[in-house]
Amino acid sequence: MIPGLQEGARMSVPARSRLPRPEAQVAFEILREILEERERLDHEALSERIDRFVGALLLLGGETARWRFNIDKKTLGDISRSLQVGIGRLGSAQPFYHPFKGEIDSEDGIAWNRAHAYIFRLPSTTPKRLFFDLVFDLLVEVGPWLRTCQRPGCGRLFLYRRPKQAYCSESCAQRVRMARFLTQRKAKSSKRSSKPGRRPRR
Fold first, then answer.
1. Dist CA 3 CA 23 (whole Å)
2. Three-class secondary structure of residue 110 per DSSP
């Protein structure tokens, strides 16, 4: 348990919820694209992915405007590297700390919409802060469905659709089944070859 967090303080979702909200699933897939394609994407393409992710979650929070950040190359690199490190720590059951929490942002806070009876967060105006604030909000929401793929060599994060789902995709599941089949066939073949042959008749 994380120090200072009481047992009863763990966030949860209603038992009747079988899957995360569709909007949260879309945002999670965009986040996974950023993680998995960061090395192949140029500055403009990676910036577009981050804009899509931020925009998807601001829409989730009730905003209607299309979001657009003008992120410089250094900031984009900082975001990309910090995300990879943080998700790696999370997948290894270690805390994922906010990499830019120390940066001051006077507009970061909350507001109360009395007419619709809810309190919402005011988004940070600093790209790095806002991005990771939204990453954390998303991961808290989808946490009950979050798993790591059990195929050796994969370890990809995914949102399960069936309670017993152990692999991130049908491709990974198929590779595991094939590896198991080949191992069993090899074991049977070794067992047959190790049996003593019949003695020839005289």
1. 32
2. strand
Among residues 137, 157, 38, 24, the alpha carbon closest in space to that of 88 is found at 157
Q: What is the pLDDT of residues 101-160, one digit of tens each?
A: 666 555 667 778 888 787 866 666 677 888 898 899 999 999 999 999 999 999 899 999
| Gap between the Cα atoms of 91 and 109, Å rounded | 29
- Within 8 A by CB and 6+ apart from 170, the residues are none
Whole-angstrom distance, CA of residue 166 vs CA of residue 139 = 19
Residues 6+ apart with CB under 8 A from 97: 86
Tokens of 2: 């994380």
Q: Which residue has the higher pLDDT, 108 or 167?
A: 167
Cα–Cα dist 95/88, whole Å: 10
Can you spell out the DSSP letters for 126-167? SHHHHHHHHHHHHHHHHGGGEEE--STTT--EEE-SSTT--S
| Residue 127, amino acid | P
Query: Contacts by 161-170 with C-beta closer than 8 Å and gap 24+?
Result: 161/19
CA distance to 19, 23, 39, 176, 201, per residue, from 138 (Å): 14, 10, 23, 30, 75
Judged against a pLDDT cut of 70, whether residue 195 lies above it is answered with: no
> Alpha-carbon torsion 10, 13, 19, 22, what sign?
negative
